């Protein structure tokens, strides 16, 4: 049913296997909550709800650990050997089950983990599992506007009904919080980084306060994106210069006002001097000046400022790739303690494949937060079946080599490489008012995978895929295997029929939908497609070696060595770094032109295979969810043909070479 989509991975349907269900039902008799805090309240409520559904019986909550065996005991234990306060330890003690943690927040996460254990059909007999998050701030960034629209949102309108708030609390806010808590997300920025100053007004702050009240018992702190020009816009000041004492005072006062309403407010997220947003550079000041002013205002309350590094200049002869590094690296060490710099995974902009941003590893004295995009702005909106865990993992596992082999992006971001005191990972949310939250059901997997990886980046894409599939679609072993495979291959398929071999930024103008490789004029030169693919009579690709923009020099020598030679550069990155002749023989044995065609055609064909594989799981999946995914796959097939034909025919105008024989047939 449609409700199946609404319930995400927290379905708690009756376990079909009767023997298994009886085993759990006998083993689990009661919940012992111990002390009561709002988060323990959420935890026990969830355990009751979950077990009621999964086992089909009511499991009573009691305050003290007396009575018969089979108790689930929530236990705060400061002596528990866990890496931090948010971790949990699940274990069996005689015939009882202990959910143990240093804090009530750990118990909340432990309770969801306990439920997941049962949802995924694992045995309780030898239960002994510990886990602590590797990243402190695990956040969603919503690009939601005051009027309820979402920038780059493809699943309906904003979840936040600003006009009804603060008086009316949509129950959906609680389900949002439950879903996030279940995967360890503990922070949310509720508004767009292209920020309206209005969020800081007495009109909107009570609305934000009301949301914070719903999220608090689920361990989620609320943050706001701010508009740097707010002192002028709202305060009536003559300037928003961060070094002006009146401006500084305005932020101090505003911050106090916010904390009065929301004592556990998380802090500010800032997009400044980027794509037309105001910022300190409007007054000849630096990003550090701007960030430090806000950091100072937030410090007395324990808040943080998260300053984005997504900046670039409209220089037709420059290389946008290099911009963030050039602006931010020189500022390393100049930021206050409670400031973080948030860097997108790649140097350009959330493309289907990017090399990791060279800023990772380049700012040892400044905590860098990693920003992924969960919403599929460049990955086919909500018509394309693309599981993003492999993309996230590719970045996390990339080796920066800045402190020798093994200096992965994950180790930069989790703080172990440079000893960052603060750590954070953010995902640009894909949620909206659609009944199933994310438009495409597979979008749910991406929300889920982001949360799980922010908690533990060592988890594999495959493990997450299996876990999610079991909780969302089916426990049928064959179907789980088929869906897992579909998920794991889906991103590479998408890359192949849109931007193979390291092509990037050739999508439709503005909307970022469909192909437009011929785009040559735009409001900015670095928004066109020809700027990036540089196709000409000789070949295609962006030369970022010494003979070109030399962006490669921003990486450690070992990374440069990996990518700087066109003979040995792995094919997925080839056109990111090299302008390659059409008739150049590649390591695959094909010429560049043939390889390009091969990938476009095989990529589009892979969608047909996805449709066939999806058809096989029909008996094991809810009929409405099945039909919805099938319909979207059919749309994806149409879009894949569009991408393939647009790109192959356009690039052929330069290569003047024939489409390889195997592909010269009707579809
Ligand atoms: O990917 C681009 C988007 C913009 C977005 C910007 C950013 C919020 O096209 O819509 O603005 O990135 O990350 O700031």
Automatic annotation (TrEMBL):
Transmembrane segments: none annotated. It comes from the Bacteria. Pathway: Carbohydrate metabolism; pentose and glucuronate interconversion. Residues 438-661 form the Glycosyl hydrolase family 67 C-terminal domain. Signal peptide: none annotated. It is an enzyme of class 4 (lyase). Its cofactor is Fe(2+); Mn(2+). It catalyses: Hydrolysis of (1->2)-alpha-D-(4-O-methyl)glucuronosyl links in the main chain of hardwood xylans; D-mannonate = 2-dehydro-3-deoxy-D-gluconate + H2O. Residues 8-113 form the Alpha glucuronidase N-terminal domain. Keywords: Carbohydrate metabolism, Glycosidase, Hydrolase, Iron, Lyase, Manganese, Polysaccharide degradation, Xylan degradation. Coiled coil: none annotated. GO terms for molecular function: alpha-glucuronidase activity; mannonate dehydratase activity; xylan alpha-1,2-glucuronosidase activity. Its EC number is 4.2.1.8. Residues 118-437 form the Glycosyl hydrolase family 67 catalytic domain. Belongs to the glycosyl hydrolase 67 family. Belongs to the mannonate dehydratase family. Catalyzes the dehydration of D-mannonate. Homodimer. This is Mannonate dehydratase. It comes from Persicitalea jodogahamensis.
